[in-house]
Amino acid sequence: MSIDWTRTAIAHKLVVASIVLAAAYLLKAYYSGAASEDLIWIIGPVARLVELFSDFNFVHEPGYGWVDVEHDVVIAPACAGVNFYIIAFCMSAFQLTHRVQPLARTLTKIMSAGLLSYIIAIVANVLRILLATYFYDIDLHSSWLSSETVHRIVGTCVFYLLLFSYSRAISTWHNRQAPEHRTDTPQSPSTNILIFFVPLVWYLAFSLGVPLVNQAFQAESENFIRHALQVVLVTVVVTLIWLTSHYLTVRFRKV
């Protein structure tokens, strides 16, 4: 009986992995050759929401992006947030479908992950643009902290914080499911801690692992190393802060 269940679980995971990773690959391939006109489905909502919460006024310049000449701000295809969307989709799709379930329900959860990740990606990009322009306006950069570095750190903080929160929300939702959907064995403390590293693994795998695998970093190896150090530092620090906060919360509840 256990052997049959194990085979079913493996088959389920293979199906999920095939669907999710194939979708991610196709979206990445589409994005790599996409012009601004091809990305209106994600840049358009971002531009409109940024306008809603600021005094920006974007105009779509074909072949270039969404431009605000007065504030010298451009939302180009490179800043569309598609890479973050792919990371969020893959992470949430695997989290939502980690239990063995009927194929129809699995497909529904994968599509739900796609829709939720799309919304998260838009929100993240809006926050990133608003905060980046804010820090640029207050002239935070200096001789050792360039405006480009500030922009990158702000983007990493926003993207990773939302990805982390997204992952925690999914875990909380799973824990609040009806008893019949829960496993009979409670999660061990080590398993609960490992869940905190799920977004870290996905973020680093895509933001640093993919450029290493396809050797895209070789064109600007020095900039990539600087970028990698900043990404690792920000994501690890954020993860440790959340983990420490969780540990202290659990300790106080036991007192």
Walkthrough of the structure:
- The structure is a single chain.
- A hairpin with a 3-residue loop joins β1 (59-61) and β2 (65-68).
- The protein has helices at residues 2-32, 40-52, 82-96, 103-137, 147-175, 189-195, 198-213, 221-254, and strands at residues 59-61, 65-68, 73-75.
- The chain is globular and about 65 Å long.
- α7 runs antiparallel to α8 (221-254).
- Helices cover 71% and strands 4% of the residues.
- Strands 1-2-3 form a 3-stranded antiparallel beta sheet, covered by helices on one side.
- The chain has 255 residues and is mostly helical.
- It has one domain (2-33, 81-254).
Quick synopsis:
This protein is mainly α and 255 residues long.
List the total number of helices. 8
Structural class: mainly alpha
Let me know the largest β-sheet: 3 strands, antiparallel
Distance, first to last CA:
43 Å
* Apparent shape: globular
Mean pLDDT: 84
Q: Enumerate the spans where pLDDT stays under 50 for 5 or more consecutive residues.
A: none
How is the quaternary structure best described? Answer: single chain
- Beta fraction: under 5%
Strand adjacency order, main sheet: 1-2-3
Compute the CA-based radius of gyration.
20 Å
How many discrete domains?
1
Q: Spell the H/E element sequence.
A: HHEEEHHHHHH
Helix content: over 70%
Task: Kindly list the characteristics that best describe this protein.
255 residues; mainly alpha; globular
